[in-house]
Specification:
about 425 residues; alpha+beta; D-Maltodextrin-Binding Protein, domain 2; five-stranded mixed β-sheet; four-stranded mixed β-sheet; 19 helices; 18 strands; about 45% helix
Length: about 425
């Protein structure tokens, strides 16, 4: 009798367990995802979201691209209304120190594995106190490239030198500038009607300054003391180098120009300093623009072509997420090699995961083979600052513009750039 009752009890318990956990879930977990709103990035994310939901039918992605990602993130963290997963550009350390995002759990990937699988330059701005806070999806390489408008070249009755195809671009800066001057068109008043080479405008000028300082043998970074040094001989020489191509009758661009590469889209620039993601934007949004893509030569003859390369767009999970396990499952899914590769190819980016550029998409492309040649010269711009975005996109361009427009002397502008950046670094370390 007791044996019979025991068997009945086991049977009932089994039925209860089946009803509780053996049946398909009647409700889905919803994860909110924020990313930037660029068209190629949105297209890539929508594809991967669909694939994720097919593999995880009990998880729904509520996808909300954000046109003003930086402002949205800061206000949402303050209000406690942030997404579960966010795609964010650049350093995550300021969020890590504030305790508003999560470190990568061991079950997702160990620190050792992360460092084995990802490029060191891309990881630097995700590391805080021995832990990684999110993953970089790309090594963002800024302005090591050259875009050439085939339409404007043909209109000028010129052709791209054969040596540029053999060398993945011009061999020297002098050679490039001589060609740019042939393509620069002035009106009767001496105003530029067609830009020969897009150099100036917005934050791109900051990238040029960093590259020039390194190529001149200097370095503004000081990790040991957690400060920067812009008031240097190399920085002053870099400013004068840039100025001579934006002033006078031999200029190829105007120092007061804004949006250096947007004029290329509009057919007003024959050539422009660029990056792979700019080429992807053309392919997606300006399909009628015909162009060639090359490596940019070093600005300084005899130097290596050093340029800025850092962890760009990447993903993290927020501390406020009510579904951290599912959020990390999403991150793990989109960063599987095949999915990571799809994203990188779609947005025309250098994947942060080692080995992905061995894929035939990269190896069979003359453009990408050229890019792979210069990757060893990418320099991380200073993750210790905690916020290179504000420095490179805000402080530096405003001070460089003040110098180039004659509002400040070279010496005063560089001193102000240095002091403003060091004040920001100090504030960030004190605040966090």
């Amino acid at each position: 009798m007791l044996k019979k009752k025991f068997l009945v009890t086991l049977l009932l318990m089994g039925m209860v367990n089946f009803l509780l956990i053996g049946q398909p879930s009647l409700s889905k977990t919803t994860l909110t995802l924020w990313t930037q709103a660029g068209s190629v990035y949105v297209a890539a994310r929508e594809y991967l979201n669909k694939a994720f939901e097919e593999e995880y039918p009990d998880i729904k992605i509520k996808y909300e691209p954000q046109p003003e990602m930086e402002q949205k993130m800061l206000s949402a963290f303050a209000a406690g209304t942030v997404a579960d997963v966010a795609e964010y550009y650049g350093s995550t350390t300021k969020f890590a120190t504030a305790g508003v995002i999560l470190a990568v759990p061991e079950w997702v990937k160990s620190k050792k594995k992360i460092e084995e699988e990802y490029l060191a330059q891309a990881l630097a701005n995700r590391l805080w106190e021995g832990k990684y806070y999110g993953f970089p999806e790309e090594l963002n390489i800024e302005s090591p490239s050259l875009l050439i408008s085939l339409e404007l070249i043909e209109k000028a009755g010129l052709s791209i030198p054969e040596s540029w195809y053999e060398n993945y671009g011009p061999k020297t800066w002098k050679e490039l500038i001589e060609f740019a001057r042939k393509l620069t068109i002035f009106d009767e008043k001496g105003n530029i009607k067609q830009v020969g080479l897009g150099i100036f405008g917005d934050w791109g000028i900051s990238i040029r300054l960093c590259s020039l300082i390194w190529q001149l043998g200097g370095d503004y970074r000081d990790l040991e003391n957690k400060v920067v040094h812009f008031d240097t001989a190399e920085a002053r020489e870099a400013i004068e180098f840039l100025r001579k191509y934006g002033e006078g009758p031999n200029r190829v661009h105007d120092v007061y120009s804004t949006g250096w590469y947007t004029s290329f889209f509009e057919g007003n620039e024959a050539m422009t300093i660029a990056a792979p993601w700019i080429a992807a934007t053309i392919d997606q949004d300006y399909p009628d623009v015909r162009y060639e893509y090359f490596n940019l030569p070093p600005y300084i003859e005899g130097s290596k072509p050093y340029f800025v390369g850092e962890g760009g767009w990447g993903v993290f999970v927020t501390e406020a997420s009510k579904h951290p396990k599912e959020a990390w499952q999403y991150v793990e899914f989109i960063l599987r090699p095949e999915n990571h590769l799809y994203w990188a190819k779609t947005v025309a980016s250098v994947p942060s995961r080692k080995g992905l550029m061995n894929d035939s998409y990269y190896q069979n492309s003359k453009t990408w083979k050229g890019v792979s040649q210069i990757l060893p010269y990418a320099k991380e711009p200073g993750a210790y600052m905690l916020d290179t975005l504000t420095v490179i996109w805000g402080i530096m361009p405003s001070e460089i513009d003040s110098i180039l427009l004659g509002e400040k002397s070279v010496e005063q502008g560089l001193k102000d750039m240095e002091s403003r950046t060091n004040e920001l670094i100090e504030e960030l370390y004190e605040e966090w």
